[in-house]
Each structure stands twice: as C-alpha cells, then as structure tokens.
Amino acid sequence: MAVFRTLNDIDVKDKRVLVRVDFNVPLDKNGEVSDDARIQAALPTIRHLLKNGATVVLVTHLGRPKGVDETLRLDAVADRLSELLKKDVRKMDDCVGPPIEIAVRAAEPGSVILLENVRFYPEEEKNDPEFAKKLARMADIYVNDAFGTAHRAHASTEGVAHLLPSAAGFLLEKEIKMLSAVLDNPAHPFVAVIGGAKVSDKIGVISNLLKRADAILIGGAMMFTFAKATGKNTGKSLVENDKLDLARDLLKQGKGRIMLPVDTIVAHAIDKAKGAKNVPMDGVPADLMGVDIGEETIKIYSEVISKAKMVAWNGPMGVAEVPQFAKGTLAIAKAMAKVKGTTIVGGGETGEAVRKAKVEKRLTHVSTGGGASLEFLEGKKLPGIAALEANVEQFNL
Q1: Which residue of 49, 156, 251, 338 has the fewest CB atoms within a 10 Å radius of its CB?
Q2: End-to-end CA, the chain
Q3: Which one is the CATH code of 7-172+381-394: 3.90.550.60, 3.90.1150.190, 3.30.43.10, 3.40.50.1260?
Q4: Which has the higher per-residue pLDDT, 289 or 352?
C-alpha cells in the first residue's frame, strides 16, 4: 500500500488548506445538482479541516469545458455544498489570480471558499508548472481528496503536490485502502466480475486479477469478443475482431478460471427492446445483437458470487442505460449485496448501477472513480498518489 501523509499527520490550525475535491457532478436541465454523491463523499475531510481551525479552499473541475463555459460554472455546486455543511460557502468567479489570492488570504479560519472550475484553464490538464504555482500561492498545505481524478497528472492533482506539504484526504485514503485489499491480500474465494464494451479497455485489469482471483466472470459487450474467439456465432453483436487472439490468450492464461456467459438477451438494436429474447450463447441469430447476459448466466454468476468471501466488480453486464437491458447488471448488484464478505465496486457506470439497484449501503465499498479504480486494479501507479508519496520525502513536517 502507498505511503503518504493523511489528515491525521498534519496540523492545520490557522492554515490555508487547498483541497482538490471531485465535484464533477451531474446537473439537471435547470442547472441544479441532480446527484450530490461526490459532494457528500468529500464532507468528512472538509468538516475535519473546519473543526481543526483551517481555512478551506476547494478546487475542482466540472465537465469538459473548452475555455470558460457559463453552463459549467460552480454556483449550483456551491449552493448544494452550503446546504450540506449548513454553512456559507463563498464561491469565487475565478480559480487563480491576484484578486482570488487577496480574498483567500483575507478569509477567517473556519471559512469555506470554492474556486471556479479549474478546467476553464487549459493549463490545468497540461499540468503547467506556472499554473500549479498560481494555485499553490493560495495555501500553506495541499490535500488531495479527489480519487476520481488521481489517475490524471493535472496541475491541481499532481503539480501542486510538489509545491506544498501535502496529505491525502479521508476519501482518497479510504479508496486506496479498499482497492489495495483486492491486490495485496484478497480473501478467498475471490471473484472478480468484469464487464463493459471492450476487451481492449479491460486487458490490464483481467491480466492483473488473474494472478489473484479464483474466478473471473465476464459480461458486457466484450463477452462477444470472447465468444467469437471460442468459435461461437455472435450475429451483429459488438466484437473487436483485432482482439480475438488476445481473448484466446487470456482464456489460456485463465486455465478455466475465466467464466463466460452461457446465454444472452438479443435484440435488433440497443435502442429497440421490442422483440428482445433470451438465446443460448451459441445461438445468436445473424440479424440480432447481444445486449445483456441471459437468465441462466444470471443464475450461474449469482451462485458463484454467493460463495465468495471477496468480490470486486468493474463494468456493466449489458446496455445498462436501457432499462430493459439492465436486468443482468442489476442482478449482479443484488447478488453482491447478499455476500457476507468484502464487496468492492468500481465507480462510473458500475457505481450508478448499484445506486439504481438501491444496494449501495449493503456493499463494503463503492468507488468514486471509474477510470481511476480501473487503473488502480490494473496495478498502475496513479500520478496523484505518486505525488503524495514523493511529498513525504520532499517536505519534512
């Protein structure tokens, strides 16, 4: 497990603390926050800093703006955070520059300031050193609590950590602890459930978990690349034809531990539920495409999951955004909720699925980071975490 400072290792009294949070939340058509889960996840860190006498300066991105985008300003986020904290949150009109620095320096301990969307500046994603310095000038200490962006080497996630004494927030610390348990010391039987569209997106995680898992259950559109690699007809299903040899290699490495669906739901298109039916995996009609795992596969996978002491899941089992094709994904979520051992879910679409299934609170951990959790489980070193590790040597507190 990574070695870095945590909030319990730093004295923040009368200090200005720059906190990288992940408030990249969905907004409804009225511009209001429609899901505040990511804001809620950062509250323990913010409350701890306030309780211990810090001035809290929050920095986040929202969406993927190309320059300043009026629809992606953080006013609605500030309003929701203020409601949750039951405290005024001062939202700035910019994230860097002399006026912002002056306002931050003038703020009393116990204040909460939210800087404007950091991605309004292209220098953020370029990890521009001068831009990182502008952010760092506003604070005495840096805290990274944004696991969802820890796999990005950006100015606010990586650059600033080389300029100020730094620590991990409670959320980032928990994410690393839970995901490290999968890689470092999984309880057995350990079952991994891997879904999603493309084998190419999941090669790394499948290969890494093969060294640890007792069974890997495959779902999502990538099951058809595996199916074709084993000689089955796949109809109009999504297949990565250039990855068939890779799929065969993974099955060979797995030595029977990679389980493939035995049946599938097929339809004319991913947006046409009418006429959808359940067919065996070797019976996909030429004019139809697979859109979910089938009923028998749900039973088999649920049974395997029920016997596990640890389950890690990343990626939906079908076209989960279409309600009629979400049955397999929701069934996996419900099966995991019954497991008596440790259950860990990657973020993104998988996290959305467990919330739809209303089982989130019955699982051990639902990650706030989709891409970050995937790269972590691949065994990659995430730049945001590596910077915190280096910071321990750089700044002797």
Answers
A1: 338
A2: 21
A3: 3.40.50.1260
A4: 289
Spans of all domains in the chain:
7-172+381-394, 188-340
Eight-class DSSP state of 236: T
The overall average pLDDT reported for the chain is 95
Topology match between the domains 7-172+381-394 and 188-340: yes
Q: What is the pLDDT of residue 377?
A: 93
Q: What is the model's pTM? A: 0.91
Asked if 350 and 314 count as a contact pair (C-beta separation under 8 A), the reply is yes
Q: Position of tokens 């493939």?
A: 260
Instruction: Give which of 104, 178, 92 is closest to 139, Cα–Cα.
Output: 104
Q: Which residues are catalytic?
A: 38, 198, 348, 371
- Are 99 and 137 contacting, i.e. CB atoms less than 8 angstroms apart? no
Q: How far apart are CA 175 and CA 370, in angstroms?
A: 12
What are 74-118's pLDDT values in tens digits?
999 999 999 999 999 999 999 999 999 999 999 999 999 999 999
Is the Cβ–Cβ distance between 171 and 147 less than 8 Å?
yes
Q: Which two tokens stand for residue 282?
A: 């070797």
